[in-house]
Amino acid sequence: MMQETAMPNPNSEILIDAVQLSYGSHHVLNGLSLNVAGGEVYALLGGNGAGKSTTLSALLGFVRADAGRVAVGGIDPARDPDGARRRIAYLPENVALYEHLSAVENADYLLALSGTPRARAAIVEALAAAGLQERAYDQRLAGFSKGMRQKVAIAVALLREVPVLLLDEPTSGLDPRATSDFNTLLHAVRDRGTAVLMVTHDLLSAADVADRIGFLEGGRIVEEVTAEGPARFDVRGLRDRFAGRALAA
């Protein structure tokens, strides 16, 4: 069902309200508004240069909006980036992990860095919940596929118990089986009450996992679609409607 972009909800974990942001004379975000509640997956789709990466950068406190409001759990990332980032797990398109360490060692080290150390038993339990096979727990990541690396990163996010998960092109480079596994895992993360914002070109994956899909063009949401009924989304209709907006399904 097509609808107007949702009104800002001050209780949302992720809140972007009428944000304007420019790099010099180049306007990147032009009145962008979106909100994501706990237990919800919001997929932000758009072509190259639409403003997807800048949106994530604003939430992480790497760039400051010229106007409007950005908040993560009520915290302004530009004013208190550390406070906002403590509420966020961020998975970039290419997850940065330590090649010479095993899956368990990576999780142990990253959790210690974040100030949330966990026992090996808890790490192993989270790796299993993320879908990593037991034989891979003590293998070095040098031989891991992108999908396996993502599972390690998701396990760390689960153990940190943060309320917000940001994903940048999470299914890029994944084969269909790995994409399906990732989407199943994302459903589980959402069901734990996490607010998930994923930016993507992958309409099919977005339709499978998202509760809402927002289409970003020229730095603003031009259309927002909400999942409805067993079929969730009319994927063919979405592809036809947005074929001219540089979206790759």
In short:
With 249 residues, the protein is an alpha/beta fold.
Can you describe what's shown?
This protein is of the alpha/beta class and 249 residues long. It is built from eight helices and ten strands. It has a seven-stranded mixed β-sheet with strand order 1-10-9-4-8-7-6, with helices on both faces. A three-stranded antiparallel β-sheet has the order 3-2-5. A hairpin with a 2-residue loop joins β9 and β10 (220-226). α5 (146-160) runs parallel beside α6. Mean pLDDT is 87; it is low at 1-5.
Q: What's the layout of helices and strands?
A:
Elements: E1 2-3, E2 14-23, E3 26-36, E4 40-45, H1 52-59, E5 67-72, H2 81-85, E6 88-91, H3 103-113, H4 120-129, H5 146-160, E7 164-168, H6 176-191, E8 195-200, H7 203-209, E9 212-217, E10 220-226, H8 235-241
Parallel strand pairs: 4-8, 4-9, 6-7, 7-8
Antiparallel strand pairs: 1-10, 2-3, 2-5, 9-10
Helix pairs in contact: 3-4, 3-5, 4-5, 5-6
**Helicity range:** 25-40%
Give the rounded overall mean pLDDT. Answer: 87
Which homologous superfamily in CATH is the superfamily of the largest domain? Answer: P-loop containing nucleotide triphosphate hydrolases
Q: In the CATH hierarchy, what is the class of the largest domain? A: Alpha Beta
Distance between the termini: 19 Å
- Global structural class: alpha/beta
Q: How many beta-strand elements? A: 10
CATH topology of the largest domain: Rossmann fold
Shape: globular
Number of domains: 2
Keywords: ATP-binding, Nucleotide-binding, Transport
GO molecular function: ATP binding; ATP hydrolysis activity
Protein name: ABC-2 type transport system ATP-binding protein
Pfam family, one: ABC_tran
